[in-house]
Design brief:
This protein is an alpha+beta fold. It folds into 2 domains: 4-196, NADH Oxidase; 214-401, NADH Oxidase (3-Layer(aba) Sandwich). It is built from 12 helices and 17 strands. A hairpin with a 4-residue loop joins strand 3 and strand 4. Helix 7 (242-251) packs antiparallel against helix 11.
Length: 415
């Protein structure tokens, strides 16, 4: 019964608002979605009405910058590349693209829970001109924006082409990787019409046996806790019910909105290394259309996967891959994808992978498990463990494990 602008505010806080602080965790604070190193480079901007400045969502304050204005009609999602340390070089582009997929599903869920109808407008050829309108001094350093239009809104008008923000001239010399990834991002434009945000949740999803409601589900999502400010993830070997794999497969079958993102999502191959799941053989499985199918029985696959992971067990790092009941890989045949989508395929498949992985994170939380998105597996040896062909690129992986009780405090930041 609340006005739509109040429901939009609640949806934004649901999607972005900090959930908790873990004093022992080197990465704080934790939101409802995963982010590399908890950097949260993707931000939401809300329009202030005709002729009024855009307002930045400040998740810590549960508020927007600036003075109250007319009811919002649009939300813009864009990522700041310079938030990610320069040592990541070209990988900064992929991290932003993947997180946009995470955030899109998180926001879609929030809008769905509070009954705020909306449409997604992917970046078109004129999207470059919208960045200066957001009031960003470094507009050149931000990704092309996703626009979420409320159903009573009229869309966003970009500025003229001559206002397109250009990187500073010295960037090609001082940070050539950043200059190049920005150039590539500006080519990631789409031709599709705005698409309705339908659902982020599998149809007919039953109640969780361990989580009573959505607020608790978002609170419980985590990526595997370590004690005493150590890095990595800790897990333990334990048999898990069949529901954990069934739920994961169903969450991974919900496509993102937008024609191009849906095409990229359909092109993804989902392969899971499974162990200790009731009713399922240990080995390599293919997840498709909401179900899992055994490709090859292999009890050694989890241990061999851990050998190919870039951050193994050490005095300062934990690694729970060999004990994980599910390790999921999202891969794509890039040549076939680019034949269908052209240059837009590069960004679209990473957005689609982020959308899929966030669904897997929520599925894991509902099953009492942790889910850790990673990009640290050695590509070619991992292809061999999974039985992938040499032309299949692994876009993103998610380790789903049984959490250990580290005994650390969890401080509630929701109120």
């Amino acid at each position: 019964a609340e006005p739509v602008e109040d429901r939009l505010g609640r949806a934004l806080v649901t999607a972005f608002g900090p959930q908790r602080r873990e004093p022992e965790n080197p990465y704080n604070d934790h939101r409802p979605y995963a982010s590399p190193r908890c950097l949260f480079p993707v931000h939401a901007f809300v329009d202030g009405g005709a002729g009024m400045p855009w307002r930045l969502l400040e998740p810590d304050r549960h508020a927007l910058t600036g003075a109250p204005a007319a009811p919002a009609r649009n939300v813009v999602l864009t990522g700041r590349y310079t938030t990610v340390p320069p040592a990541y070089q070209w990988f900064r582009g992929s991290l932003i693209a993947i997180e946009l997929g995470f955030v899109l599903r998180a926001l879609s869920l929030g809008l769905e829970l509070f009954d705020v109808p909306a449409r997604l407008r992917l970046p078109g050829r004129d999207a470059h001109g919208l960045l200066p309108a957001l009031g960003l001094e470094d507009a050149w350093a931000w990704s092309l924006p996703f626009v979420v239009e409320l159903d009573d809104g009229g869309g966003v008008q970009a500025r003229e082409a001559d206002s397109v923000p250009a990187p500073p001239a010295h960037l090609a010399r001082t940070d050539p990787a950043l200059a190049e990834l920005i150039r590539v991002n500006r080519e990631q434009t789409y031709d599709g019409a705005p698409a309705p945000l339908t659902t982020a949740v599998p149809a007919g999803l039953g109640p969780s046996a361990t989580v009573p409601d959505w607020a608790e589900l978002l609170w419980r999502r985590h990526s595997g806790r370590m004690p005493r400010a150590l890095h990595g993830m800790s897990g333990r070997r334990r048999k898990v019910p069949a529901e954990a794999l069934d739920s994961a497969a169903r969450w991974l079958s919900v496509p993102p909105p937008g024609r191009e993102l849906a095409i990229a999502f359909e092109a993804l191959t989902v392969t899971a290394v499974v162990q200790g799941v009731a009713g399922q053989a240990d080995g390599v499985h293919r997840l498709r259309d909401g179900a899992a199918r055994l490709l090859r029985a292999d009890t050694t696959a989890p241990e061999r996967l851990e050998e190919q992971y870039g951050y193994g067990v050490s005095p300062v790092n934990g690694c729970g891959i060999r004990d994980a009941p599910l390790t999921v890989f999202l891969s794509v045949r890039t040549r076939e994808l680019f034949e269908r989508l052209g240059t837009a395929g590069w960004g679209a498949v990473q957005h689609a992978a982020g959308w899929a992985a966030h669904g897997l994170c929520l599925s894991a939380a509902a099953s009492g498990l942790f889910a850790r998105p990673v990009r640290a597996f050695k590509e070619i040896p991992t292809q061999r463990v999974l039985g992938l062909d040499p032309d299949e690129m692994i876009v993103l992986s998610v380790v789903v494990g049984v959490p250990q009780d580290t005994g650390g405090a969890l401080l509630d930041l929701r109120l």
